[in-house]
Amino acid sequence: MPGDDHDALRATLATAVEALGGAERSGQIAMAEAVAEAMSEHEHLLVQAGTGTGKSLGYLVPALRHNKRVVIATATLALQHQLVERDLPRLTKAVSGVAGVDTTYAVLKGRSNYACLHRVREGAPDDQGELIQAEAALGAMGKKVLELREWAEGEVEAGGSGEKDAAPRHTDKEWRQVSVSARECLGRTKCQFGEECFAERAKEKAARSHLVVTNHSLLAIDAIEGIPMIPEYDVVVIDEAHELTARVTQAATDELWASEVERAARRAARHTRTDTDDPAGDLEDAANVLRGAIAEAQPGRFEALPDELADALALVRDAARALASAFPKADAKDEPDAGLTQAKGAVQELFATADRMAANGDYDVLWLTEGTDRLPPRLCIAPLQVWSQLRAKLLADKTVVMTSATLMLGGDFNSIASSVGLKPSERVPHRPLVEVRGAPAPSLETKDTSDALARRVAASASEPRIETPEGANDAEPWIGLDVGSPFDYGKQSILYIARHLPQPGRDGLGPAQLEEITELVDAANGRTLGLFSSRRAAEAAAEHVRTKLPHLTTLAQGDAQLPELARQFVEDPHTNLFGTLGLWQGLDVPGDTCQLVIIDRIPFPRPDDPLMSARQRAADQSGGNGFMQVAATHAALLLAQGAGRLIRTHSDKGLVAVLDPRLVTARYGSFLKASLPPMWTTTDPAVARKALGRLSGSA
Question: Where does the record place the Helicase ATP-binding domain (predicted)?
Answer without folding.
Answer: 14-304
